[in-house]
Amino acid sequence: MKSRFNQQKLKENLAGYLFILPNFLGVFLFVVFPLLFSLVMVFIDWDYMMGFSGIEWVGLAHFKKLMTDEYFLQSLKNNFIFTAVTVPSAMAIGLVIAVILNKFVYLKNFLRVLFFLPYVSSIVAISIVWSVMYNPTNGPINGTLRSLDIENLPGWLASPDWALPAIIIMVVWTYTGYTMVLYMAGLQGVPKDLYEAASIDGATGMKSFFKITVPMLKPTSFLIAVTLIISTFQVFAAVAVMTKGGPLNSTMVLAYYIYIQAFQYYEMGYAAAMSWVLFLIIFVITILQWREQKKWQDQF
């Protein structure tokens, strides 16, 4: 009886493993294996047009090259600026919109969908539309500024000084709907009693916002910050469509520079080294955020 039970259990386990086998193979072939192979490529120089015979061991030469590559350093600088401006801006604007929509306003559901729509739309299509809007001579943005008698209009994507801010504005506009939806979900968990008590004590709406709303939304802010930092360090499509890293490398970011090295110059090992540097940067920032989280997570 016990032997029959064990056989039945073995058949059930085998059936379960067979069901997950296709998914497991897919993860291994398209995630785990490429990840491990990219780690090996960090230490080799591979001309993949020659097949595996084009592999040459170079050790840490790629990392030494990174330290003197001015284009890599410029990309790293642009990425940090992009992230440092985009993440707080998208979070702040999304929070303000969420607080406003959380109150009684007309067409709340319609406005919620309207703000969230850019986030779920194709980033390529959005980038093309914004490129037309940023046209320095015929674009509607400069046309509006010109009608207001504003001189020295920005060159936007054609200007080394304005190209990166232009992309930041577009990406902030895209991410605002995402932050708004998460903050609106977080606001549902803030006890109404706190606002009532603050009102009785004479606190103004602004004071309640900074003393109650913002502190109570720390877990939500942490989630948003982590996801946005990862996304902004991996920004690619907007740069590829709108500027291709120009003008004068003013919008060159790590993800796009990795793409150029890998698929235009065929420097696969060098591109792999940069990709692992990018991974380590995101990993370290995330760990630091987790450590900061432990200081206040006991409050919730």
TrEMBL record:
Annotated CDD domains: TM_PBP2
Pfam short name (any one): BPD_transp_1
Subcellular location: Cell membrane
Listed InterPro entries: ABC_transporter_permease (IPR051393), MetI-like (IPR000515), MetI-like_sf (IPR035906)
Membrane topology label: Multi-pass membrane protein
Keywords on record: Cell membrane, Membrane, Transmembrane, Transmembrane helix, Transport
Keyword Membrane set for record: yes
Assigned protein family: Belongs to the binding-protein-dependent transport system permease family.
Official protein name in the record: Sugar ABC transporter permease
Native species: Paenibacillus naphthalenovorans
